[in-house]
């Protein structure tokens, strides 16, 4: 994940879930992620119809597309050519290629079927042909005991274009996608070190294996 919004939302989601595969929808506290809400959304999943609808969408996300997204289909953000039976014939090698105009349902299905997070690189285009790189993150949520009913996500632009709010993005295209690995002990240790407060007269410790080494020592006494 490259975008700060994606990383922070994933960290928040991961903290909520603890040892579970996914947190409950009711555990999401908007006030705790208020600085992420402009790019965030929640999806309602209908596995039987292979469809999902946007239940909530942030203000900047709606401004990017020039319309209220709440209540509309998530697939409506993509070009119609990327959605439908024709894309069901895309094989696994094509899905993992660097540039794939993927059916958005494949992204949702990967998250809900295996209860894992997913990050994808997208490009949006306006009627004038202007393009904007975006990062999409999708994270599973439990809802009333079901694990395939809701998704938490964010769609964040890597830059804020001058035409934001004037010329909307007509559709997006999926360029890449990757399943998010669960954080291991090494990642947890790195997060611990990076989360340490800056000391007043010392340097941040450096990790060597399982040791935290502080600069300094008897030589300066």
What does this structure look like?
The chain is of the alpha+beta class and 221 residues long. It has helices at residues 4-17, 59-65, 92-95, 104-114, 185-194, and strands at 40-46, 51-57, 118-125, 131-143, 146-157, 171-179, 206-208, 211-213. The strands form 2 sheets. A 6-stranded antiparallel β-sheet has the order 2-1-5-4-3-6, with helices on both faces. Strands 7-8 form a two-stranded antiparallel sheet. The longest helix is centred in the first third of the chain and has 14 residues, at 4-17. Residues 85-101, 196-204 and 217-221 have low confidence and may be disordered.
Key words describing this protein structure:
two-stranded antiparallel sheet; single chain; 221 residues; alpha+beta; 6-stranded antiparallel sheet; 21% helix; disordered C terminus
Strand line-up in the sheet with most strands:
2-1-5-4-3-6
Helix content: 10-25%
Alpha carbon gap, first and last residue = 44 Å
Order of helices and strands: HEEHHHEEEEHEE
Number of helices: 5
**Biggest sheet statistics:** 6 strands, antiparallel
Taking all Cα atoms into account, the compactness measure Rg is 20 Å
Give the strand tally: 8
Principal-axis shape equals globular
Q: Briefly note the structural class of the backbone.
A: alpha+beta
Strand portion, in percent? 25-35%
Mean pLDDT: 80
Question: Which residues sit in consecutive blocks of at least 5 with pLDDT less than 50?
Answer: 85-101, 196-204, 217-221
